[in-house]
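Feature request, filed as a ticket because there's no other form

It would be nice if the structure record came with a short human-readable summary line next to the tokens. Right now we just get the raw output. Example of a typical job, pasted below so the devs can see what we mean:
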Amino acid sequence: MSDLVFYTNPMSRGRIIRWMLEEVGQPYETVLVDWANKSADFLAVNPMGKVPAIKHGDTVVTECGAICAYLADAFPQAGLAPPPGSKDRGPYYRWLFFAAGPIEQAVGAKSMGWEAPPEREMMLGYGNLDRVLDTLEGALDGRAFVAGDAFTAADLYLASHLAWGMQFGTLEKRPAFEAYAERHTSRPAAKRAAEIDDGLIAAAQQPQPEPAE
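Raw output as currently delivered:
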């Protein structure tokens, strides 16, 4: 049994962490969480009842941005984070948590049909969706990576948000977003992760045999 356990559902944000785990390249155990019947064991890991979550030894981490940051630091040999104290560490943190904060909030609000009046936008952590997307576009336009000259967990998290949002229409397609998302979601680890989760979805949709009498 691996000391790295991944709690997920293939039709969730857990797909982001599956990709991260495939990039890390360490053995891990997958525990599938049934939306309708969350076990007591899983609720002991995350009382919110949400996936994804990981357990590494005795350490539990939830929330996609936190899991990505944790795994990058726990397995530095994968090279998924700039070294602490380097000039690229600040941008890495900035854009990793820009995805976890402003992007997640702005897209969620749009999906729910919520829009703050202009005079109250400053009460929100993201202002408005257009400002979020313009800021992100400025950071990505013409750049292969968001922090330095190598792929990091920040690129993985941003590319996941962009690919998902553009696929399902919660984010508008912009050339800079499309080029950036395509560049990173074509990585071998991203493809392996998608194949695993797509396979789990297909298996779950197969007709179940009738119980023997």
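Something like this underneath would help us a lot:
The two ends are 35 Å apart (CA to CA).
The chain has eight helices and four strands.
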